[in-house]
Amino acid sequence: MSADQLIASLEQLGREFQHVIRPLADEQAIRAAQAQFLGKKGKVSEVMKELGRLPPADRPLVGAAVNRVKADIEEQVARRLRELADAAARADLARAVDVTLPARPVGGGHLHLLTQVRLEAVQIFSELGFVVAEGPQIETDWHTFEALGTPKDHPARDMQDTFYVSDEIVLRSHTSPVQIRTMQTQAPPIRIVAPGHVFRRDDDATHSPMFTQLEGLAVDEGISFTDLKGVLIHFVSRFFARDLTVRFRPSYFPFVEPGAEVDMQCSFCMGAPQGLPRAEDARPRSAAGERDRSPSGAGGACRLCKGTGWLEIGGAGMVDPVVFAAVNIDSERYTGFAFGMGLERMAMLRNGVDNIKFYYEGDIRFLEQF
Ligand code: DAH
Q1: Any atom of ligand 1 within 6 Å of the Cβ of 174
Q2: Angle, vertex CA 341, rays to CA 311 and CA 361, nearest 5
Q3: I need a surface site. Which of 3, 172, 195, 206 has the fewest CB within 10 A?
């Protein structure tokens, strides 16, 4: 081939490339076409092989034509890519977005029932001058038992079997060790409530290996059992939002003397279960035997308190002098009361939760009810 013919076929390649590239609409295809023309085995390289057969004097002219066609093809590639990018940007800008469309509603979360109950309880006690105290969940045997009048061989330990980390370290089985920690670091007057997790070897519908207690402690000169009773009456009345009273049943806890189980007046039947008509007399029988949702169950007994009129909510008493001795507080000068209650139980009684496991399962159908 002559130099003129070579130059003509190079220019022809430039035009051919225009046709090839025009319909291509994505970068990958464009790059593939570019390689077909400019790659090592591409069409332009094929023509360049002829270059060696030309008389040397003709080569520069043809060489210049090669460079022109290469630059031309590269320019076409760049232009086509620019066109595509511009078109994409225009399409993007032209997209109609209705910014006035309301967003899909996102359900609002709320505090867990147990958290609500803890905060409410703390609020009520704080209005009486109690402040929140805390202690570790992994506690020494000494703080959990010994300092609370419960030496290692004491039978009362059986009531609170717990998890031992070692002989001297336990998962606390109650919040009462916070009493000890508080009295070790503060001088009377003391008024604290200590809410927190506790652990026991228990597991059924009303017991869980982990649950939450709220401890109370008041130490001062002249504190008496009536102060304890007044505080608890105030608390249950506020918490259940109706006038309720409490009663004490003499009981034994190693760290109080006297000690008592605390019952509150049944918030459901108000302690008047006898006043309710017996089921057989008062209610028309439903043919389908539908579920009885009334406060009085079969036989007229209130379901919540089983007809006793009272609901057990915790333990309490006057701080035993052996406890004061363990923390070097003068029991001739100071007296104090203490109480402890389970917060799961308080929510069960007030909010009608009938299985303790519901609190911990995280089932939204349960959680969203409160
Ligand atoms: N710590 C006891 C328990 O978990 C409850 C208790 C009873 C706490 C009497 C007290 C108290 O502060 O005075 O079984």
Answers
A1: yes
A2: 95
A3: 206
Is residue 342 in contact with ligand 1, taking CB distance under 6 Å?
Answer: no
Q: How far apart are CA 370 and CA 359, in angstroms?
A: 11
Cα(370) to ligand 1 centroid in Å equals 28
Q: Is the CB of 176 under 6 A from ligand 1?
A: yes
**Over the stretch 267-325, which tens digit does the pLDDT of each residue have?**
988 887 554 444 433 333 333 434 444 455 555 788 888 889 999 999 999 999 999 99
- Mean per-residue pLDDT, 242-255: 95
C-alpha closest to that of 69 among 104, 45, 98, 53: 45
Distance 200 CA to ligand 1 centre (A): 14
State whether the beta carbon of 317 lies less than 6 angstroms from ligand 1.
Answer: yes
